[in-house]
Amino acid sequence: MTEPEKDKVTSSTPADEVAAATAAATAAADGDQAAEVAADAAAVAGNEAGELDSELEKAAAEAVAEVIEESQELAEAKASAADWQDKYVRLHAEWDTYRRRMTEQRAAEKLLATEKLMESLIPVLDDFVRTVDYAETNGEAGLLGGVKAVQSKLVDVLGKGGLAVINPEGEAFDALACQAVGTVDDPSVPDETVAQVYQLGYRMGDKVLRPAMVTITTGGPAREKPEEE
């Protein structure tokens, strides 16, 4: 041992040794505390990371559930749209079938009505043939009576079919059923009275097929209007 080392050993005191031991113990205590702090920080970080992972997993699960629900709603909407489209196609086909059937039915009814009318007119045509044959065989002496009989029968057949004759002679002029082709001065009857019928008119129900061609009077008193209820 050298002299300086001897001096250093001899110069240390018990107080110095106690201080050194205290410093070493303090340093060791500080190291343990730092380790505990680091461990606590790591634990906190781990907990936060775990909570974050849980929140992310929860959010992901909710997003997946929402997507699945929307997919189900979309599938239901598509199924409903397909169902309504199928109903529309079937209804349209049924309507076309109904319209075609009604058209065919109306055509058949019209043909049947025409056939009935023609069948009713056949006897009238037979009467015309017999009248002409009678006139050719026996002369024209009885032709007028035969023609009148055929005319009466024809009017009767057409009347059964709904045809009505418009013959307003002596009645008040009706512009809806008559056509005035001239005037006659006659103060003895009310003004606008049908004086003469040049051509008969015809109607079916409320529809005028052909108005009657007539002359009407002028110069007479004004016709009284019917009282309103």
Secondary-structure map:
Blueprint: H1 3-11, H2 14-138, H3 143-160, E1 163-166, E2 178-185, E3 194-199, E4 201-204, E5 207-210, E6 212-218
Parallel strand pairs: 2-6
Antiparallel strand pairs: 1-4, 3-6, 4-5
Description:
The protein has a domain of 58 residues: Nucleotide Exchange Factor Grpe, Chain A, domain 2, CATH 2.30.22.10. The chain is elongated. Strand 4 and strand 5 form a beta hairpin. By secondary structure, it is an alpha+beta fold. Helix 2 runs antiparallel to helix 3. About 4% of the residues have low confidence. The strands form two sheets. Strands 1-4-5 form a three-stranded antiparallel sheet. A three-stranded mixed sheet has the order 2-6-3, with no helix packed on it.
Key descriptive features of the protein:
Nucleotide Exchange Factor Grpe, Chain A, domain 2, 229 residues, 66% helix
Structural class by secondary-structure content? alpha+beta
CATH topology tier name of the domain at 164-221: Nucleotide Exchange Factor Grpe, Chain A, domain 2
Rg is 61 Å
Largest sheet: 3 strands, antiparallel
Instruction: Note poorly predicted spans.
Output: 4-12
- Count of DSSP H/I helices: 3
Could you give the order of the helices and strands? Answer: HHHEEEEEE
How are the strands ordered across the major sheet? 1-4-5
Average pLDDT: 79
Offer a concise description of the structure:
With 229 residues, this protein is an alpha+beta fold. It is 66% helix and 14% strand. The protein is elongated.
